[in-house]
Design brief:
The complex is a heterodimer.
Chain A lengths: L4 H15 L3 H12 L9 H13 L3 E5 L5 E5 L7 E7 L13 E2 L3 E3 L3 H20 L7 E7 L9 H9 L4 E10 L3 E3 L1 E2 L1 E10 L14 H13 L9 E10 L9 E10 L4 H20 L2 E10 L2 E2 L5 H12 L5 E2 L5 H7 L4 E7 L1 E2 L7 E3 L3 H16 L6
Parallel strand pairs in A: 3-6, 3-7, 7-16, 8-15
Antiparallel strand pairs in A: 1-2, 2-6, 4-5, 5-18, 8-16, 9-14, 10-12, 10-13, 11-12, 17-18
Helix pairs in contact in A: 1-8, 1-10, 2-4, 6-7, 8-10
Chain B lengths: L1 H11 E3 L6 H10 L4 E7 L3 H18 L5 E6 L6 H7 L3 E4 L13 H11 L4 E4 L10 H12 L5 E5 L10 E4 L3 H14 L14 E4 H4 L10 H13 L4 E5 L10 H21 L12 E8 L2 E8 L12 H6 L4
Parallel strand pairs in B: 1-9, 2-3, 2-5, 3-4, 6-9
Antiparallel strand pairs in B: 5-8, 6-8, 7-10, 10-11
Helix pairs in contact in B: 2-6, 3-4, 9-10
The chains are: A alpha+beta, B alpha/beta.
């Protein structure tokens, strides 16, 4: 085991070189995972694939829990502490989407390849990676593929795992395929909601100003956009999807809007929720329609300090691989780890484009630097260099 | 006949799931001292070749050393097929550079034929380059029967084509050319060969001792010629077939299938000539042989189809009388 953090940093270039010999194994895992459809709540095939790989690697405690998470333990030489390495297994794509991946000399294209087939593949390949680099840890590594992460899943997989796990966790690392340089150490305050407009059947369409669901929902969006947002701490509203109607000339009677409020200010999401509820009440009463807000998920902002040893270590690692850190608050698994007071960060493995679109792609070459940084971070945690 | 086919279906038809234990397969391969080469013939396959190489190399060379040699033999692609293949560490060859003294010919059969010279394996596994859902089973399923059973010399892949079916029993068979051209021809002239579900599939594994002794049409007829020649020389028991579940690939137009059928028909008739069957046609069979599957169990369904004929109406007395024809 390296006895200081500089030794770990110095070994990164050599590890990066050695890792290129694992290119086919890592990419094959990413491709095979990527071609298994895994919309949220339907991650079973991917988790089974992971479990089979864990079995082939001879890991311990291989299991799939009630929430559909897949886990295994790579035992450490002492096994007193446990480090959690996790990646979400679900994607935003339906099972009917063509999940075929295509491989070029420098890129891989395919839905979900960056978010998060590559992240999951790095966890599946980690035992082989450590073997090739001749690295062993004192701590156990808990390798976890998380189910039910995105959208309506609302981090159900990791939450179930953390609520039922009996092993003490020293630190957590959440792995995303993209973007290399990502350094998330805070969870952003978040409210994920859905607004549904419903025009009742007895609605008087002859009345002056009568309007269909699209017009009403547009009014709601306009009014939300008029809410003043503070620049500091940063606060944003993201309108993610809007669905209504089926034709050109028929006014739809229902419409729905999915959105997220993200803020680094404590209490901001709750404040915004109140304002949005006031807006929809006002528009619903003025139009004699039904407009409702359902909150799908909610998180409070929290996190490590910029000066936390784990964050500082990660900044040094990124410097060593010549990548500028990109601090980005997370709404993913990290939030639940932080909520449980487990020091954790989220990192990315390579550069990619068009995340969550059918033409999503990743670059192959930076993956080796990305995996080398993951290994270096785990070595640093294991060596006690990330403890406060 | 039917008994022989039923028996062959039971003993020589496999499902790739039977060969999940790769360690056991590799142990046996090593015990028998077999070397296995994998050949992918290509022509403008830059979109799918990279994935095939990454997955097959990772799973069947690095993780489980089943394959000893992995080569791409190209017919002169003008896209980046060879660049992509080389980038992921496959041995790449232009067919025209192999055995140049034999002169150049362009076609898939040429690549398959030259692979015998270029590759060193005791068994050569051929896998088409256009498979969108490539998986290690596309190799393990067809090579395992040859490793396990020394009498099997030629193993073909077949695929379950998903069709809507309301009960547990479903129709099973090949592609359009197989069902419209090959199966009727085999039913008429070589009924035992109807046991092969997909004689035209591009995935097959063959022992060198067979490959070096059969001719290779270089175009569309190569698979048909192989089946006929191997059957003629070694009989039905030399064959095996393996169900590889689904294969997703680009769909060909009816026009393209027409061209393919024309090429295959030429090969077929040439074979009839060389077997001295043209002037001595056997009595034509009237049983048409298809398949149905229930789970992983396949059985032949035979239908009597007799093409009875009526004479010209003018030869019928009642007709002649009605219309006053003397």
């Amino acid at each position: 085991m390296p006895n200081n953090s500089q030794t770990i940093l110095n070994s990164i270039p050599e590890h990066r070189e050695k890792l290129s010999s694992l290119r086919e194994i890592l990419l094959a895992n990413a491709l095979m995972i990527g071609e298994l459809p895994a919309p949220t709540f339907e991650e079973e095939e991917r988790i089974t694939f992971m479990s089979n790989r864990f079995t082939e690697e001879g890991l311990q405690n291989i299991s799939i829990d009630e929430a559909g998470n897949g886990m295994a333990i790579l035992p450490g030489t002492k096994g007193v502490n446990n480090i959690l390495v996790c990646a979400h297994a679900d994607t935003v794509f339906t099972s009917k989407t063509d999940h075929a991946m295509s491989v070029g000399p420098n890129h891989i294209h395919g839905p979900g390849i960056g978010d998060n087939s590559l992240g999951l593949a790095s966890i599946v390949t980690l035992p082989e990676i450590l073997k090739r680099l001749d690295i062993s840890f004192e701590d156990n590594l808990i390798l976890l593929g998380c189910s039910r992460s995105l959208g309506h899943g609302d981090l159900g997989g990791i939450r179930f795992f953390l609520e039922n796990n009996k092993l003490p966790i020293r630190a957590g690392v959440c792995v995303e395929g993209i973007q290399l340089g990502r350094l998330s150490y805070t969870s952003v305050g978040m409210l994920r909601g859905e607004i549904i407009v419903n025009v009742p059947s007895q609605y008087d369409w002859t009345k002056f100003g009568a309007a269909g669901a699209v017009v009403l929902l547009t009014k709601v969006v306009q009014r939300i956009m008029e809410i003043p947002l503070p620049l500091e701490p940063p606060t944003r509203i993201l309108f993610g999807s809007l669905n209504a109607g089926t034709s050109f000339g028929t006014e739809p009677t229902t419409a729905n809007l999915r959105f997220e409020i993200r803020s680094e200010k404590v209490g901001m999401a709750a404040e915004m929720r109140q304002k949005i509820e006031d807006i929809i009440d006002e528009i619903a009463n003025g139009s004699n329609t039904e407009i409702s807000l359902s909150v799908i998920a909610q998180r409070t902002p929290a996190g490590l300090n910029y000066s936390h040893p784990m964050v500082r270590t990660m900044r040094n690692i990124l410097k060593q691989v010549n990548v500028k850190p990109h601090a980005e608050p997370s709404v993913g698994e990290l939030s639940e780890l932080i909520h449980k007071k487990i020091p954790a960060i989220t990192l990315g493995l390579t550069r990619g484009l068009d995340k969550n679109e059918f033409k999503e792609s990743i670059e192959i070459q930076p993956v080796f630097a990305g995996v080398a940084q993951l290994v270096a971070l785990l070595q640093s945690i294991d060596g006690g260099f990330c403890d406060e | 006949m039917s008994n022989k086919i039923e028996k062959w279906l039971k003993t020589n038809t496999f499902h790739h799931g039977e060969f999940w234990d790769l360690r056991k397969l590799i142990e046996l391969k090593e015990k028998k001292g077999l070397k296995i080469s994998l050949c992918i013939p290509t022509l403008n396959e830059e979109k799918t070749i990279g994935k095939e190489i990454v997955i097959l190399k990772s799973e069947l060379m690095e993780r489980y050393p089943l394959i000893d040699e992995f080569a791409v033999i190209d017919s002169g692609s003008d896209d980046k097929t060879l660049e992509v293949a080389a980038a992921f560490g496959a041995d790449t060859y232009s067919a025209s550079d192999i055995l140049p003294e034999e002169g150049p010919k362009r076609g898939k059969g040429e690549n398959l034929w030259k692979a015998i010279y270029q590759l060193k394996g005791d068994i050569i596994v051929y896998v088409d380059a256009d498979i969108k859902n490539i998986h290690p089973r596309f190799v393990t399923g067809i090579v395992a029967p040859l490793i396990n059973n020394d009498t099997i010399k030629y193993c073909k892949a077949f695929y379950d084509r998903p069709m809507a079916y309301s009960s547990g029993v479903r129709p099973s068979g090949g592609g359009r050319v197989t069902e419209i051209l090959i199966r009727p021809l085999f039913s008429l002239f070589f009924p035992e060969l109807t046991s092969l579900m997909q004689p035209l599939s591009g995935e097959f594994a063959v022992r060198r001792e067979v490959l070096e002794r059969i001719p290779f049409p270089i175009g569309y007829g190569v698979e048909t010629a192989h089946i006929l020649d191997v059957y003629k020389q070694w009989g039905l028991d030399a064959f095996a077939q393996c169900d590889l579940d689904q294969r997703i690939h680009r769909n060909q137009t009816t026009n393209a299938l027409g061209k393919m059928s024309f090429g295959i028909l030429q090969t077929f008739i040439n074979r009839l000539k060389s077997y001295d069957m043209v002037d001595r046609l056997p009595e034509l069979a009237t049983l048409y042989r298809q398949f149905q599957a229930e789970g992983n169990r396949y059985e032949q369904v035979t239908r009597e189809i007799v093409e009875d004929e009526r004479p010209p109406m003018i030869t019928i007395p009642a007709y002649r009388e009605k219309y006053g024809i003397k």
